[in-house]
Amino acid sequence: MARIGFIGLGHMGSGMAANLVRAGHEVHAFDLSEAALAKAVDNGCLAAKSAAQAVKSADAVVTMLPAGKHVGEVYRGSVFERAPAAAILMDCSTIDVATAREVEAEASGRGATMVDAPVSGGIAAAEAGTLTFMVGGSDGGFERARPFLEAMGKAVIHAGAAGAGQAAKICNNMLLAASMIATCETFLLAQKLGLDPQTFYDIASKASGQCWSMTSYCPVPGVGPDSPADRDYEGGFAAALMLKDLRLAMDAADSVDAYTPLGAHAEELYARFAELGGAGKDFSGIIKMLGASAT
Ligand code: NAD
Fold it and tell me: Is the pTM of this model over 0.85?
C-alpha cells in the first residue's frame, strides 16, 4: 500500500482516485471544488485542505487537471515544494507537449521523477479502471509509475521520453477526429446516393474503408454496435474535449512545422459544431451539422 496525493477529482479524476483506493492505497485527495472533494471522500479518499497537504509525505502523486496552465500552477505552486523528492509524479491530464516537457525538466532538475501519462477512454473507463495510459518519461520513471497506472487502466504503454505521452494522445485524437468526419460524410453521401445505411455498413466494414469510427462507434443511429448515436449523441466523448485536443495538435504541428491539412480542417469543423451548440454532445454528433450543411 502506498500513500498517494491525488489532485483534480473532476469527471475523470473521481473514478481514477476511487480505483486507487480499491487497489488498497491511501489516497489523500484535493480539488478546488468542494463537491468534487466530498465525492472523493464518499469513494474512500481522505480529504486534504490543499494540494500541498495532499502531497506531503506521499510515495506517489497523481494529477488530473483541465489544462497545461493548471498543471504548471499545481506543480510549481505545491508539488515541487511539498512532495518528497522520492515520490513518483504522474500527470494524467491532457496538456500541451511543451508544458509537459518544461514541468518534467523542472522536476528532474529538483531530483524528482515525473512522467506524463494522459489517457484514452472517457468517464466510464475511468470508473471501470479500463483506461489506456500513454506514458512519456524515462525507463525508470515508467517502471515506477506502471503499478499505479495499472490500478486505473487496462493498458499502460511507454510512448518515449518526456512529452511523448502527450504527443501520442494528440496524434491519436487528430486521427480519430479526421476519421470520424470522413465516416460521417461518407454515410451522408451513401444515403443521398440511395444506399441503405446498414447495407453500406455491411459492405464498408468488410472492405478497405473499414475504420474504428465506423465499426466501433458508428455515427448513424441503429447501425453497428451500441454507440452515442443511439442515445441522441449524449454521453461518450464531448465535442468540446475533441476540439481542445485538436487545438493542442495544431499548436504542436505549428511548433515542429508539420503539414496537417486534415487536422486543421477537423479543428475548423469541430469549432463550428461547438459554436452551433454541439460542445456538450458526443463528437460523432457532428454528423447532424454535416447533414444539415448545403454545398
Ligand atoms: P474536469 O473539469 O471534470 O476536472 C478537473 C478538476 O480539476 C475539477 O474538479 C477542478 O475543480 C480541478 N482543478 C482545477 N484546477 C485545480 C487546482 N489548481 N487545484 C486543484 N484542483 C483543480 O475535467 P475532466 O473531464 O476530469 O478532465 C481532466 C483531464 O482529462 C483533462 O485534461 C481532459 O482533457 C482529460 N480527459 C478527459 C476525458 C473525458 O472524457 N472527460 C477523456 C480523456 C482525457
Answer: yes
